Amino acid sequence: MSKCLKEMRIGLALLLGLTVLPSCGGEAPDLHVLDKPKNVDMIVKRDHGDFWNTVKMGAEVAAKEYNVKITFKAPPSENDIDEQIRLVDESIQHQADAIILSATDYMKLAQVTDRAAYYKIPVISMDSEVASARVKSFVGTNNYEAGQKAAERLVELIGENGRIGVMNFVKGAKNADEREEGFMDYAARFPGIEVVDIQYCESDERLARRLTREMIRKHPDLNGIVALNEIASIGTAEEIQRLGYGEKVKIITFDSPAKVMELLQEGIVQGTVIQNPFNNGYLAVQLAVQALEGIEVPERVDTRSKLIDLDNMLWPENQKLLFPFVK
Amino acid sequence: MKLERKPKLLPFPRIRLSFKLRSIQTMITVSFTLMAILVVVAVSFMLYNKFAKTAEENAYLNIQQIIEQVNYHLELYVKGMQDIYEVVEDQIHETPDISSAVLRERLTTLLRTREDLVSVGLFTPEGTLVLDVPDLDMRRNTLLETQSWFESARARPRELSFSAPHIQNLYKGQYIWVVSLSRMMKYRENGKTKEGILLVDVNFRTIDELSRKVSLGKRGYAYIIDDLGNMVYHPQQQLIYAGLKYENLEPVFEYAYGSYMDKSTGESRYITVRTVEPIRWKIVGVAYPDEIVTTKRDLNQFVFWFLLVVCAAVVVLAVVVSAKISQPLRRLEKSVKSVGQGDFSTPIHVSGAYEVVQLSKRFNFMLHRIRQLMDQIIHEQEAKRKSELDVLQSQINPHFLYNTLNSVIRLAERGKKEEIIATITSLSKFFRISLSKGKNIITVEEELEHVRHYLIIQKIRFKNKFDFSIECEEEALSCLTLKLILQPIAENAIVHGIEKMQDEGVIRIAAFVKDERLTIRVSDNGLGMTRKVMDQILTGGVRSGGSGVGVKNVNERIRLYYGKSYGLSFESELEEGTTVTITLPKEKTEEIRRERGIL
Questions:
Q1: Are A123 and A134 in contact (CB under 8 A)?
Q2: How far is CA A265 from the centre of its chain?
Q3: Would the ipTM clear 0.90, i.e. be above it?
Q4: What's the order of all strands across the beta sheet hosting A306-308?
Q5: Is A124 helix (H, G, I), strand (E, B) or coil?
Q6: Residues lower than pLDDT 50 in chain A
Q7: Confidence band, pLDDT 50/70/90 cuts, at residue B587
Q8: Which of B268, B356, B419, B512 is 20 to 30 Å from B44 by CA-CA measure?
Q9: How does DSSP classify residue B277?
């Protein structure tokens, strides 16, 4: 009897073997491509603006490539931290397969990030970090370095003696703090350079204008100003032009909205540090897929920052970075 | 007797599985299944290969067609743009003065009709703006002298050049991705003919959208490069600039038109190249055979389930069919087994396949025959017992004893001492042999001795009315015979043949061996008998009376013991006498009979 069963088993194995044989013909697919679409939630800082749209574009390209269903979420404004916490919680409740988070606040988003990790949802931190050890990976610009680049160029422009103002965006956001730190650290190398004012515009253009006005009023002898993100850049640069301080006050900005590029060509802005939001979005999704597949992900992925000025703005690779959208 | 056991055999479709390796059921199931599976697998393998190949070819063909179509659209578009450029050129040519309002008006109208026409500009070879439509302020720091459209117009003045898409940074208020068409041309200003560079910017959006819409499978895409290898369009252009993506452009340059498999990125990709002729851009379609394999995988899965279902069906069918075939056989086997255990009364249930039915019928017939033979044996045994009882009875036949003693009394009265002694002696020997220690078989010698004593007694009793002689061959003496077979015949001869005769009778007994048979012949010269009587003797019509053991009984006993080829035969003629011939097998020792199991 057992012999018979054994024979039958061998027969069955043979049969299965024969049927499986043709299925072995194909090449093993790339490990990253998911067989079944997974839900990845991307929670960013703001639901509008070229920067985030470019992130989104990159993420969509990756989503198509890796068979991911991506959902974009963002609070209406960048300082609405509670709303962002709520959005992460919502993603946890909806059992997203992975979360990509660009934290509006380094500390305040930590708890909810840990909670996501507790529910075994891998979290990829993008653009700006969050104070959680449970984050799988961080992808974004090295903001400290970006801050240093801005400082280096500004010092080149104004010389080793001068007074500088800083227009930061949200205090507590990791990337804002890092850029500021990088900038300050570099500036501190030059004893003649004095940082006279640091303001936070909460990524509000009107507030940025107002703060710039106040800064100029308080320090009319200002030699240079650095604006540390897209909104701060527009507000600051336009206000400086309006006040007639163009070219007198050297401006280094961050990111490349059309308005800033216009001002760059007009000579109001001397240089802008740009990140690579497209790559941020793309790589974040790629890393999320890797984490989902159980492939080890690097702790940090640096998508380099670049200083753009009149000389290099028309280089083909920079054009694509500066103007990611074909309109 | 009639199918009492039938309820035990449950009717079909109860399928009892028998997994004995060499049972019919197993053999049929296994061979049937294997055969069917082999065939199905072979067929599906062939079909699969055929389908997969066709699917693959179709997929590749489809990809080529898509790229072909994009190429066609692009060519049309580019030609349209060239036409427009020439129209603009003509308009400027026709106008006597470049600053005329009519020209501006015409060009503005032209710009309005074509939505994707961004701007028209005329520059001096030094880069100074002569004419721009729409009328916008120039930006500072445009660096137009370094831009490719300007450079190529100066380098190749007669050739209409198409730039790679770039940001149009000349005019205030917008940053638009454009493709620039440019060429040197002559225009008239203030009556002088001058050289200038005509720039027509076409919005890149149309080409971008056209390319973006190309979808080759789930992940496949198309990209465009210009003749210098610059990326015109790539869905992941930024990744390429950042070095995160890589397109192997080298083989693309070798092809103007064609398809090949590229494995430079580690993953095999199906590349299709087409060239947009007027501007020598190359459209490159990238498809992932993996996805075609996905179709294959679907097919695979289908084939797999199909096989599984077919195999399951075949197994079930094989089990059912084999059960149907083997079950009646096993029922037959059970019946035969019960017959083997001694149950002859239950006939086999006849059902199933033709062969099984035939077998069952034959078996039933055989069973019937066995039963018949057994009945016969029982009957014969009974007859044997009866005849033995008869013999037993005859051993101490009271009638014969009474007659003999009577004659002894009569002899005593007459004082015939000699004869008394002879009679008593013979009687005693007669009985001794009759009994012979209960044995059934004795030697011929003893049997002859027995009949001799009988005849002596009878001869004295019948006052020498007959004489007798007993002859025996030496060889026959030691042969074996049933006992008490001669005495009834002798008695018969005396009672029916000699007693009523006037003359002296003679009884002759002769024993001899002939043709391996022992023959004992008893003949008398008495009255004889008719054929009718002769026939009746053996069928039991005539009863001899006397000693009680009839001639018929003798015949039956011989036949029971030795078989139908032995027994008695009569020859008789009226007034002449009768001869009874006893035929027996020639048997010498008792061992033979032991072997035969008669004793």
A1: yes
A2: 25
A3: no
A4: A193-200, A162-168, A224-227, A250-254, A271-274, A306-308
A5: strand
A6: 1-31
A7: confident
A8: B268
A9: G
Tens of pLDDT, residue by residue over B215-252, are 888 788 899 998 888 888 998 888 888 888 888 888 88
Contact call for residues A91 and A116 (beta carbons, < 8 A): yes
Return the residue of B nearest to A3 by Cα.
Answer: B21
Contact A51, A203 (CB under 8 A): no
Q: A265, B307: Cβ pair inside 8 Å? A: no
Give, in order, the Cα–Cα distances in Å from B510 to each of A188, B479, B534, B582: 160, 14, 21, 10
Chain A positions touching B52 (Cβ under 8 A) are 22, 25
The tokens describing B337, both together, are 């087994």
Q: Which amino acid is at B359?
A: L
Distances (CA, A) of A34 to A143, A321, B44, B214, B236: 32, 29, 29, 22, 19
Q: Does the beta-carbon distance from A20 to B239 stay under 8 Å?
A: no
Residues of chain A with Cβ-Cβ distance to B49 below 8 Å are 22
Q: What is the DSSP string of B100-126?
A: -HHHHHHHHHHHHH-TTEEEEEEE-TT
pLDDT digits (tens, 9 = 90+) for B460-478: 888 888 899 999 988 888 8
Q: Which residue of A has its CA nearest to B27?
A: A4
pLDDT tens for each residue of A111-155: 999 999 999 999 999 988 899 999 999 999 999 999 999 999 999
Q: Which chain B residues have a beta carbon less than 8 Å from that of A319?
A: 166-167
The reported pLDDT for the residue numbered B595 is 53
Nearest-CA neighbor of A304 among A187, A122, A148, A174? A148
- Dihedral angle computed from the Cα positions of residues B273, B275, B279 and B284, in that order, rounded to the nearest 10 degrees: -20
The token pair that represents A163 in the structure block: 């007074």
Q: Which residues of A touch B293 (CB under 8 A)?
A: 26-27, 29
Q: Residue B459 and residue B220: Cα distance in Å, rounded?
A: 136
Cβ atoms within 10 A of the Cβ of A2, count? 7
pLDDT of the residue at A327? 75
Contact A26 B205 (CB under 8 A): no
What's the pTM value of the predicted model, to 2 decimals? 0.64
Interface probe, candidates A16, A302, A320, A325, chain B, greatest B C-beta count within 10 A: A320
